[in-house]
Design brief:
The chain is of the alpha/beta class. It contains ten helices and nine strands. An eight-stranded parallel β-barrel has the order 2-3-4-5-6-7-8-9, surrounded by ten helices. Strand 8, helix 8 and strand 9 form a beta-alpha-beta unit. The longest helix has 23 residues.
């Protein structure tokens, strides 16, 4: 069943468990994510990100994930992650996404707040939820890598003002997390998570979840994180599943699908158990 962020995250915030966002760029990922959610009776957030649109057109992804979500008994949020432009966020809402993240975190504070507030008004008028980002979650490598990530950590006092001004439904925060593969063990600022959770009245989001330890996840969720983004782990799992099939002597794409879906599903189920979202519907 199609829902928005408020339908799953408000309960998660209240009861201190996490709901995973798993980005899907193909049918194998989509089926694996949904199979896991249905088997474990877990709410789930599924979608894509603007940076991933090279793998599939936005409307094509929307049609694929929406078709599977609509026939499911579990709550499914279709979330457009890291929307970088107003135009693409609007396109995502028109394509049927029930939630969008408008990421203006690289802009100055005033511009970030003004741009996000603008899209919140539009989204809320049609029942779509919005996630914003304050501070900036950089990358572990490449052009998005930050020289000193602590300079971009989310300030709790500013976070309260941002939420009040924008009326966002969820807030992504920077607390030592980063996108992609971690080259060194990350050190999350758990006290900062607690301080932000106390300062705002909306669910908090942790990006860059792939590569964190189980204890990192548990403590972050205990301190106030309600939504956790995962992509790198399931992307790697699909490749590993494909390799398992090849090693088993499979030599055609159709028969490899079973291996890919099974490998991705295994990782998704592990995360859902870790986040304690199992049997929440």
């Amino acid at each position: 069943m199609l829902v928005n962020l408020n339908d799953v995250l408000l309960q998660a915030r209240k009861e201190h468990y996490g709901v995973g966002l798993f980005n899907a760029v193909n049918l194998e990922m989509t089926n694996a994510i949904m199979d896991a959610a249905e088997a474990l009776k877990s709410p789930v957030i599924m979608g894509t990100a603007e940076i991933l649109l090279g793998a599939a057109d936005l409307k094509e992804v929307a049609a694929m994930v929406r078709a599977r979500a609509e026939r499911s008994a579990v709550p499914v949020v279709l979330h457009y992650d890291h929307g970088l432009t107003f135009e693409k966020c609007m396109e995502a809402m028109q394509a049927g996404f029930t939630s969008v993240m408008y990421d203006c975190s690289t802009a100055g504070y005033e511009e970030n707040a003004e741009r996000v507030a603008e899209i919140v008004k539009i989204a809320h008028s049609i029942g779509v939820t919005v996630e914003g980002e304050l501070g900036h979650v950089g990358d572990n490598d490449g052009a998005g890598k930050l020289e000193n990530p602590a300079d971009y950590y989310t300030d709790p006092i500013i976070a309260a003002d941002f939420v009040r001004r924008t009326k966002v439904d969820a807030l992504a925060i920077a607390v030592g997390n980063a996108h992609g593969d971690y080259k060194f063990p990350p050190k999350l600022d758990f006290d900062r998570i607690s301080e932000i959770a106390d300062a705002v009245d909306v669910p908090l989001v942790l990006h860059g979840g792939s590569g964190l330890t189980d204890n990192d996840f548990k403590e972050a969720i205990r301190r106030g994180i309600a939504k956790v983004n995962i992509f790198t782990d399931i992307s790697k799992a699909q490749v590993q599943g494909m390799q398992e099939g090849i090693n088993a002597g499979i030599n055609n794409a159709f028969d490899l699908t079973e291996y890919e879906v099974r490998a991705v599903r295994r990782v998704v189920e592990e995360k859902m158990r870790l986040f304690e979202s199992v049997d929440r519907i």
